[in-house]
Design brief:
Number of helices: 9
Distance between the termini: 56 Å
Helix content: 55-70%
Mean pLDDT: 87
Oligomer: single chain
Low-confidence stretches: 207-211
CATH class: Mainly Alpha
Largest sheet: none
Radius of gyration: 19 Å
Number of strands: 0
Length: 211
């Protein structure tokens, strides 16, 4: 398949993922799946991504590798490891049971009522960026952009991360209100250009306060 057509189809596939991921992030799955909705959400997202990646390999099967200088190989692999390291470390800052959906199953089994979302996190990597898992995705994507397929994945995957972070901002504002507004005005979204933008142990206060 010629490159322009492959890129257009691949872009549409990524658009379908972004639209589906945002749509299902609401209450669409809660009615049919109940306490299993988070597991269903994660499973659907994973299968969708795997399908896009498999179709990408088919679309770009005849594309030649990019003509990159040999000296870039080591820095790109180092960047790839850094990205995965940040992703894994950033994941430890969340309640993984709640994020995966296992906590909701356990709660339902014992007939307990708990909130779906955990308290606002402002520690660890959240002191540097508001969306550490999204931020870790950029070095992972771009460090393997060695051919047309992975370059397209880096482009459309990065666009999804930027838009996804903006969509997530709206949800977090609705969920945490003034506390998140205070945190948001101090800490960058994806690029840690301020370094540790808030000190360890900092707690958010009303907008305009000293924090």
């Amino acid at each position: 398949m010629n490159d322009p057509t492959a890129h257009l189809i691949y872009a549409a596939l990524w658009l379908s993922f972004g639209a589906g991921h945002s749509l299902l992030a609401g209450d669409v799955l809660k009615r049919p799946f109940g306490a299993r909705y988070r597991l269903a959400y994660n499973a659907i997202a994973t299968l969708h991504l795997l399908a896009i990646y498999a179709l990408g390999h088919w679309l770009f099967a005849d594309a030649a590798p990019l003509d990159l200088p040999e000296w870039l190989r080591v820095p790109m692999w180092a960047l790839h490891l850094v990205g995965w390291g940040l992703l894994l470390y950033g994941a430890t800052g969340y309640d993984l049971g709640r994020l995966s959906g296992l906590r909701q199953l356990e709660t339902a089994r014992h007939h307990r009522v708990e909130p779906d979302d955990e308290p606002l996190r402002v520690d660890g990597l959240h002191r540097y960026v508001r969306h550490p898992l999204y931020a870790a995705g950029f070095p992972i994507l771009w460090s393997v952009a060695v051919d047309q397929m992975h370059l397209a994945t880096a482009i459309w995957g990065s666009l999804y991360l930027v838009i996804g972070a903006r969509v997530e901002e709206g949800r977090l504002l609705r969920l945490y209100g003034a506390s998140y507004r205070d945190y948001r005005r101090r800490v960058p979204a994806l690029v840690p250009w301020k370094g540790a933008a808030i000190p360890a142990g900092w707690t958010p206060g009303p907008v305009g306060g000293d924090g």
